[in-house]
Amino acid sequence: MPSPKRATTRSALDGRSLRADAQRNRRRILEAAETVFAAKGRDASTEEIAQKAGVGIGTVFRHFPTKEALLQAIIGKVATGLAEDIERLLQGDPATAFFTFFTRMVEQSTEKKTVVDLLAEAGIDITVAKPVHALRQGIEDLLANAQRAGTIRADVRAPEVMALLIGVCQASLHTSWEPDLQDRTLAVVFDGLRPR
Amino acid sequence: MPSPKRATTRSALDGRSLRADAQRNRRRILEAAETVFAAKGRDASTEEIAQKAGVGIGTVFRHFPTKEALLQAIIGKVATGLAEDIERLLQGDPATAFFTFFTRMVEQSTEKKTVVDLLAEAGIDITVAKPVHALRQGIEDLLANAQRAGTIRADVRAPEVMALLIGVCQASLHTSWEPDLQDRTLAVVFDGLRPR
DNA sequence: CAAGAATCGGAGTCTATACTCACCTTTTAG
DNA sequence: CTAAAAGGTGAGTATAGACTCCGATTCTTG
Fold first, then answer.
1. Which Pfam families match (chains A, B) (predicted)?
2. Is residue B81's pLDDT more than 70?
3. DSSP classification of residue B42
4. What pTM value is reported for the model?
5. Å from A56 (CA) to D2 (C1')?
6. Calpha distance B141→B166 (Å, rounded)
7. Is A22 (CB) below 7 Å from strand D?
8. What are phi and psi of B141, to 5 degrees?
9. DSSP 3-state assignment of B90?
10. Which domains can be identified in chain A, with CATH numbers?
11. Tens digits of per-residue pLDDT, A38-83?
12. What's the CA–C1' distance between A5 and D3, in Å?
């Protein structure tokens, strides 16, 4: 029985540090996945992502045990980005912040199918991770502020706002938007949200 | 070369008449498909439909050359049903008919994923078949009537109504509706549609 | 009732894709 | 510089589901 010539490398267990190239590949995979999932939705093939990232499929599965895990990672990333957007908006005018955010989301969802998936999960909630929860919380803050500012009726609650947000985003994937159809649709929803 | 002992059976070419059992099977397939697609959406497997219909897979493909063709048949069927509903509603009070229809659609979409697919197609339109076109037309009639009756703003047009309808129906598939969330969501949309 | 046409049926083919594995390459500690 | 550990790779496996094919079965007509 050969005695171990050297002790365990790296910072023992749990530690984060990955090998230099592994870190680079991980980043590339995440970037590629974000692009591909955004364009083709959750049905995009793992192979396409691997190719776009310039790595073998095996590498993708080494970093993410499952395609679903990769998707979740991306969703978390997107959620975090949106939560930061909200953070910024919360600094500004409470009367308009909510509407600005809602509008941006709908605009984005046209090109980023990931956003829609994200919202769907945020709607169902349950085992959702922190980033998604933070997003939810942010939306609730925007809503509360707008209600305090009097630009949204007091009797509207977060769940229906989520439903409307999901709805309009989903619809934008299925309708062939003529230039301002999106705006007119939002106008109706916004009018429904304002106090009479 | 043996001369044909008997002339072509049945009414020559094109004719409709199928063999008795074939007709029965066709009906069974359509019924099964309607149920299964309603429950599982367009991803339901052909095999499941065949089984529920009590026939072999081969039989399904004899009647419908493609899974997609079968789906289209069902969508047409559902569209026809809805168009008839509308026909009935058009007889009643124009002030409320539109809202009644909208509400029904959303309620149905929870259990019938086919309805959502149907609407998505009706939204995109292009090569859509007659039944779907009839449905679209019906919705436009309901809208026009309601506008004449003054229960819907005159500046709202059909496309955004379709978008909203698609949106709320889609959302109902993704949110875990608490009892009256659906109603509160609809309330907001309806308020946006009414004249101020 | 019998011939033959129309249908049925379901094993088998084909394709797409997630995921594994045995072997090779790169990194890194010492 | 070197060996061991970490990581990379992509052919290969497994599975699922659409669609085909042809012998077996059932209906129809005379």
1. TetR_C_43, TetR_N
2. yes
3. G
4. 0.89
5. 28
6. 18
7. yes
8. -65, -45
9. coil
10. 1-65 (1.10.10.60), 66-196 (1.10.357.10)
11. 999 999 999 999 999 999 999 999 999 999 999 999 999 999 999 9
12. 10
**Cross-chain Cβ contact A170/B175 below 8 Å:** no
Contact A159 B181 (CB under 8 A): yes
Q: For residue A118, what is the nearest residue in chain B, using CA coordinates?
A: B174
Residue nearest to nucleotide D6 (CA to C1'): A19
Tokens 């969330």 found at: B181
User: Where is average pLDDT lowest: A138-142, A162-166, B5-9?
Assistant: B5-9
Nearest amino-acid residue to D7, taking CA and C1': A22
Chain A residues closer than 8 Å to B43 by CB: none
Q: What is each CA distance from B169 to A27, B117, B151, in whole angstroms?
A: 37, 10, 22
- CB proximity A6–strand C (7 Å threshold): yes
Q: Are A62 and A50 in contact (CB under 8 A)?
A: no
pLDDT, tens digit, 9 for 90 and up, residues B65-78: 999 999 999 999 99
The encoded tokens of residue B186 equal: 């609809």
pLDDT in tens, B175-195: 777 889 999 999 999 999 999
Token pair of A135 as six digits? 């997003």
Q: Please list, in sequence order, all residues whose beta carbon lies within 8 angstroms of the beta carbon of residue B107, skipping any fewer than 6 positions away.
A: B182
Question: Which residue shows structure tokens 């020559």?
Answer: B12
Residue B187, number of CB atoms within 10 A of its CB: 15
- List % helix, strand, coil for chain B (3-state, nearest 5): 70, 0, 30
DSSP states of chain A = -PPPSS---SSTTT-----HHHHHHHHHHHHHHHHHHHHHGGGS-HHHHHHHHTS-HHHHHHHSSSHHHHHHHHHHHHHHHHHHHHHHHHHS-HHHHHHHHHHHHHHHHHH-HHHHHHHHHHHH-SS--HHHHHHHHHHHHHHHHHHHHTSS-TT--HHHHHHHHHHHHHHHHHS---TTHHHHHHHHHHHHHS--
